[in-house]
Amino acid sequence: MLCEVLILENRKSDFLSKIKSNVETEEYQSFLSQMFEEHGEKGDRVNLQFYRTGELSFESLVGKLADEVEQETMTDGGDSRYSSLITDYETHDGQVVDIQFRLSDEPSDLELTEDGYVEDVDGDRVDISELGLEDYEKVVKTNKYSVEVRAYTDAGLIAVSNSKASTTLQKALRQSLRKWGDADAGNEGFLLKETELLLMQNLMDGDNSGLDFGGFLDKNLKTAKYRGDRNETLSRSPVLSPAREQGTITQARFYHMYDDGTGPRPVQVRVYHDGHISSSKPTKPDFVDTVTEHFLTVFKYRDYIQPLDELISEFIDDRFRDELYSGEDSYRSNKMQAFGSLVDQYINSNSFDESERPVFEATFANIGIELSQLDLTSDEYPEVEEASDRPEKETDLKEFFENYSDYVLKSTQPDFDNLWMHLEYVINRQSHDSPIDIIETAIEEYALRE
């Protein structure tokens, strides 16, 4: 009865203080442990930098950590301007290792670069090219601090907490883990293309609330940022359209419904093109595990979501080399509109966020290119019926696939009627909740490479 009164009439802190004052320390700690086990812990806001390391040996990494824990040692990064102490580590499921470092570095390690970021007091990342050196030094901690690293050994991924650590330090930690874990040769870059950022949003069922753009065709333009309500359609707004046509997405913000066992709640997730990810509210380790799984899906299928604009750039110079009139801009715009019309024609708008359109456009283009290289009359491929519909901008689609075959593949132009029947078959074979559904159908039905 006393507990009921305490809970109803007092704050949580009063309730806990009352219990603590009336029981032994061991009993109080046991009570807290039981409460955490039954009702969960609050967790922490995510602020992680992901890197690819190549597959690591779990046994080698753990063996090295066991030798070095609590021993003052220089990391193997090869830079004498900092030192590292491994203060603790934990293992999970025979493939995940959490490591805590205590680091010290010199201010000279902090470099003001054009494409870097720092974290402000609100936890948001700020483009440091917009800051002077004095402001930069105010928002970045130097000297001694702790950094936590989660290594997914089988996946060949590590997540480094505390983005305040300099790029030099993070690189050294990555090199150390690669050496300690006997990393294999696979160590591809992490830089995410705009379709990959948007696929992460799609896989996390996100409602977009903001996009950052860079890499503009017009070199006088540097960055553009748009923020809005998660229920607002940004991608076709008159303000956003010029940035979408002229630049590439470098960050996606979206709301993800995260459930930590106490019920779902919206958490804003920010994914950056350099592999950095942060959240607006606390989450638990399973959130990071989920993000890692989605990153692996992106890497697995990245060949099938190469941005449409990049595919066009592969041949557009050759396409217009001998023409007096330079119609590259018009050509590019027409082809992108043609694939956009396919999304309108075949994908239910209720099954995806409007900002994710470029992923579906890229998926159609890349799968079409793969199919165009096959002998689709062969018995080893599905026997398809006449297409149920024709594409609305058929002429532009036909020209795209013919030009790609001519100038990039250096092969015979595909029979577009036959290609279209098979492409439509793939599109209609599965649900359209995610581009992954369409990609996996094409791989399975046509024995395409994964």
Keywords, separated by commas or semicolons:
16 helices; 21% strand; alpha+beta; disordered N terminus
What does this molecule look like?
With 450 residues, the chain is α+β, with helices and mostly antiparallel strands. The chain has 16 helices and 13 strands. The strands form 2 sheets. The chain has an 11-stranded antiparallel β-sheet, sandwiched between helices. The protein has a two-stranded antiparallel sheet with strand order 5-6. Strand 12 and strand 13 (276-283) form a beta hairpin. The longest helix has 19 residues, at 328-346. It starts with a helix and ends with a helix.
Question: What is the percentage of strand-forming residues?
Answer: 15-25%
Largest sheet: 11 strands, antiparallel
- Secondary-structure element series: HHHEHEEEEEHEEHHEEHEEEHHHHHHHH
User: What is the approximate shape?
Assistant: elongated
Number of distinct beta strands: 13
- Overall pLDDT level: 81
Q: How large is the radius of gyration?
A: 26 Å
- Placed side by side, the strands forming the largest sheet appear as 2-3-4-7-8-1-13-12-11-9-10
Which stretches of 5+ consecutive residues score pLDDT under 50?
1-9, 107-115
Distance between the termini: 62 Å
